[in-house]
Specification:
GDSL_lipolytic_enzyme; two-stranded parallel sheet; 5-stranded parallel β-sheet; GDSL; globular; GDSL-like Lipase/Acylhydrolase superfamily protein; alpha/beta; about 350 residues
């Protein structure tokens, strides 16, 4: 059996396992950053793109789509697990129409964050603009399906938000603007406030089933570990602590909003523990390397730094937890999606 055949077998097995969850979800609607961007950054003027090889080399047809992975991202697997479709299209991709978007659409933009200042760093789509695109999508969907059917889809759809890491690793810890204005706790509270306002506005627009993703152990990203060379390139525990505490704040926010917003179903899909477990025990999950990544040296390559002429890119991404210095491989994404389904989304069934 070839490497790609084995890969497809393993991913199909995971999907069969998680498809046991069968909620009434007619569409999956995605907001966020590069963890879930399906190619929106292809259509804007920014240096943060991934619409070239070797990105997408294990995607259907081996084509780069703008996803920051060798294949699919977690939201694609979630869509397929709900038996909707195997991939969620990017809203700005001109090859798709409202017919395609009626069962799922992605508004995410790589490099963005809760904070508008984060989206300014690499000139990407801010979260407020993603919401404006969604409002336009609602109008188009009502024109396409009719008001009653569209409102049913919008009310029963699953809304996924995956965002926040860039606010810290691209903004707070890199630029002086926010770190001079806020202590780290104040900044966490500032971001949580934005998250609360975003969820509330989505609710007012008709959304009822929502999942907001917590932060990963961002101190263990290969890009961050390279800055910790004096400690043997170990994970930066300060960053991990910040992520963990922020996730606790998000959980508190969810509990508060769940009491306030009538009939909302709101959950935290926290990737922190499962990804940290994978990183600490890679062999248990069938990986060989969790410290570096597949592309190039695996230490600092991302976006244009990870391209088809980058030397030393690995031949089998399934051996690696990370694809580039910031983003997981398709195999890792499938495992995370499986975990989210079992532990977070089952209540929608």
């Amino acid at each position: 059996m070839t490497i790609k055949a084995i890969q497809r077998f393993l991913l199909t097995y995971l999907l069969l396992e998680i498809s046991m969850v069968s909620a009434k979800v007619p569409a999956v609607i995605v907001f966020g950053d590069s963890t879930v961007d399906a190619g929106n950054n292809n259509q804007i003027s920014t240096v943060l793109k991934s619409d070239f090889q070797p990105y997408g080399r294990d995607f259907f047809g081996g084509q780069p789509t703008g996803r920051f992975s060798n294949g699919r991202v977690p939201t694609d697997f979630i869509s397929e697990a709900f038996k909707i479709k195997p991939t969620i299209p990017a809203y700005l991709d001109p090859t798709y129409t409202i017919k395609d978007f009626a069962t799922g659409v992605c508004f995410a933009s790589a490099g963005t964050g809760y904070d508008n200042a984060t989206s300014d760093v690499l000139s990407v789509i801010p979260l407020w603009k993603e919401l404006e695109y969604y409002k336009k999508y609602q109008k188009d969907l009502r024109s396409y399906l009719g008001n009653d059917k569209a409102n049913e889809v919008l009310g029963e759809a699953l809304y996924l938000l995956s965002i926040g890491t860039n606010d810290f690793v691209e903004n707070y810890y890199v630029t002086k603007r926010r770190s001079s204005e806020f202590s780290i706790e104040e900044y966490q509270n500032f971001l949580a406030g934005i998250a609360g306002n975003f969820i509330t506005e989505l609710y007012q627009l008709g959304a009822r089933k929502m999942s907001i993703s917590g932060l990963p152990p961002m101190g263990c990203l290969p890009l961050e570990r390279t800055t910790n060379i004096l400690s043997g390139s170990d994970c930066i525990e300060e960053y991990n602590d910040v992520a963990r505490i922020f996730n606790e704040k998000l959980q508190g926010l969810i509990e508060k909003l769940s009491k306030k917003l009538v009939r909302i179903q709101l959950v935290l899909s926290n990737p922190y523990d499962i990804l940290l477990e994978i990183i600490q025990n890679p062999a248990t999950f069938g990986f060989e390397d969790a410290a570096t990544a597949c592309c190039g040296t695996g230490l600092f390559e991302m976006s244009y730094m990870c391209n088809k002429i980058t030397p030393f890119t690995c031949s089998d991404a399934n051996k690696y937890v990370f694809w580039d210095s910031f983003h997981p491989t398709e195999k890792t994404n499938a495992i995370i999606a499986d975990h989210v389904f079992r532990n977070c989304l089952a209540q929608f069934s």
